[in-house]
Amino acid sequence: MAAVPVSQLSDAEKGELLCTYAALILHDDEIEISADNMNKLISATGAKVEAYLPGLFAKLFKDVKVGDLISNVGSGGGGGGAPAAAGGDGGAAGGAAEEKKEAAPVEEEEEEAMDFDLFD
């Protein structure tokens, strides 16, 4: 959201952003994240959101630990690496990859021998 100016956000996006910030502020102050507390905080800023949004966000954060969400934000990238091969299997897999690399140039030579050109 940092790359998009707030003036370019739709009203729905602004409401979701306000509720998200309200939930983070309440969590930081160790206050229960409830629809009432979110409404109080949002109305104190002078902003307005759709009536259902604070309740929806309160239900979301009821079963989710906000601290866990915050700590996991930077740890998502990439889905992890592939597991390492077992001791004896590593050499066999490497040999198969080498065979595939050697087979590719043979196919190119066969295509050149056919003298086939799509645009002739």
TrEMBL record:
Keyword ATP-binding set for record: no
Annotated keywords: Ribonucleoprotein, Ribosomal protein
One Gene Ontology MF term: structural constituent of ribosome
Disordered: annotated span: 76-120
InterPro entries: P1/P2_N_sf, Ribosomal_P1/P2
Protein name: 60S acidic ribosomal protein P1
GO cellular component, one term: cytosolic large ribosomal subunit
Amino acid composition bias (Gly residues), ranges on this chain: 76-94
Pfam families linked: Ribosomal_60s
One annotated GO biological process: cytoplasmic translation
Keyword hit for Ribosomal protein: yes
Biased composition (Acidic residues): 105-120
Family to which the UniProt record says this protein belongs: Belongs to the eukaryotic ribosomal protein P1/P2 family.
